[in-house]
Amino acid sequence: MNDPTTQPIDIEAERTWLRGYKDEMDLSWPRLAAKIDIPSGTLSQFGGSGYSGKEGPIAEKVYRFRQTLVQQKALAVEAPEVPDFYETPTGTQIETLLHWGQRGRIVLVATGAGCSKTKTAKRFQACGNNVFMATMTP
Question: Distance between CA 38 and CA 105 in Å, rounded?
């Protein structure tokens, strides 16, 4: 991103872009003004070439808004795909206990919430034969 205070801003270029963006996004002046944080009357006059005040600060805000849009578009934010099962040290220990249970031993797994008990047991059940699961609550 470029600091608009350290470079000249082309007021006409910002005005032209503003009009095009408004039309492209089918925005009213009040809605667009709210996004840029400029009073609606000021922005509509600036966009229509009828603004008699200092145009530099308005053009600078429009420029900053443009940069924000460019940065947001450049971000390719996609949530990573969540795996069905993620192997953890606790899950490995639980799986070892479940193997002991399959050999005829009585096993019990009691841990806090979110320690992968259910996920590990369901995966063990899906991968093995003669596996039955019972969940207990107080």
Answer: 72
Which residues lie below 8 Å from residue 43, measured CB to CB, with a gap of 6+? Answer: 18, 29, 32, 33, 36, 58
68 neighbors 39 (Cβ within 8 angstroms): no
Look up residue 40 and give its two tokens. Answer: 């609606």
Which CATH architecture best describes the domain 4-74? Orthogonal Bundle (1.10)
Q: Where are the domains of the chain?
A: 4-74, 82-138
Comparison of pLDDT for 107 and 7, the residue scoring more: 107
Per-residue model confidence as pLDDT tens digits over 7-18 = 788 888 888 898
- Report the candidate in 26, 20, 8, 9 with the shortest Cα–Cα distance to residue 47: 20
Lowest mean pLDDT among 12-16, 35-39, 74-78, 114-118: 74-78
pTM, to two decimals: 0.53
Token reading at 59 = 């053009």
